[in-house]
Amino acid sequence: MAREILLSLKAQLRVPIAVFFSIFFPIIMMIMMMTSYGNFSLRNGYHFIDKYFFISTTIGILPLTLISFPIDINNLLETKHYLRLKYLNVDLKKLFLSNIISYLIIVFISVGINLIVGKSIYNLRLPSIEYLCYFFIQLFYCAIVLLIFGLLLSLIVSDIKALMPVGMTIMFILFMVIGVFVQYSSLPKIIRTISSYIPVKYLANDFYYIWIGQAKWNMPFFKCNTIWLIFLCLICYIIYRRKNNVTKIFN
């Protein structure tokens, strides 16, 4: 398994769009926002960077899960590469799992670089090890659901050329409704109500309270994310089975 994860990780890091959007783009946005608005004080010794860190983290995760991952899976499915691997007795479940784990590693790398830049340049305050662990557990849970959503995109949109614009459109819509471009509290009430049903909204806006030690678990996020997890897994399973049945009929 370790070998498969390493190979998958190397393959993903060779894709320029994945590296740019997941690692460099969040840093660029962080520097632009800090330069534009300044690292103004909030309360209890916290500053703008301590809240914007979560927006920046979200900016790194969404393109990775909504663009890079779906394209990767789509390429595997539509080129029938998985059939060749199956004939070679490659464990496809292990291959898929290694893909998921490698993307979670990239998420960790993206957040880690984000954290280092925020700390070294803008004096981002770090939580205790305990609360840092709670943050990462919930971050990875959110990322897993986003990856499954990316899998659904790859199953629905079979044309790989259409997959990138579809993924980018969804990504920018999410950016707008979760407060990436404007302060979340200034969004219309209807938008905030809609976004409360989107798990990544909690990552961008509410995980801050885990970071500063006010809460260990965000229960609204857990409920929302779990519902999405069950729903997406069910839909992916149904679509995958139907595609397999159609393939068997025409073969």
UniProtKB/TrEMBL annotation:
Annotated ABC-2 type transporter transmembrane domain residues: 9-205
Superkingdom as given in the UniProt entry: Bacteria
InterPro entries xref list: ABC2_TM, Nod_factor_ABC_transporter
Subcellular location: Membrane
One MF term in the entry's GO annotations: ABC-type transporter activity
Membrane topology: Multi-pass membrane protein
Membrane-spanning residues: 17-40, 52-71, 95-117, 129-156, 162-182, 217-240
Alphabetical UniProt keywords: Membrane, Transmembrane, Transmembrane helix
A GO CC term assigned to this protein in UniProt: membrane
Name the record gives this protein: ABC-2 type transporter transmembrane domain-containing protein
Species annotation: Lactobacillus crispatus FB077-07
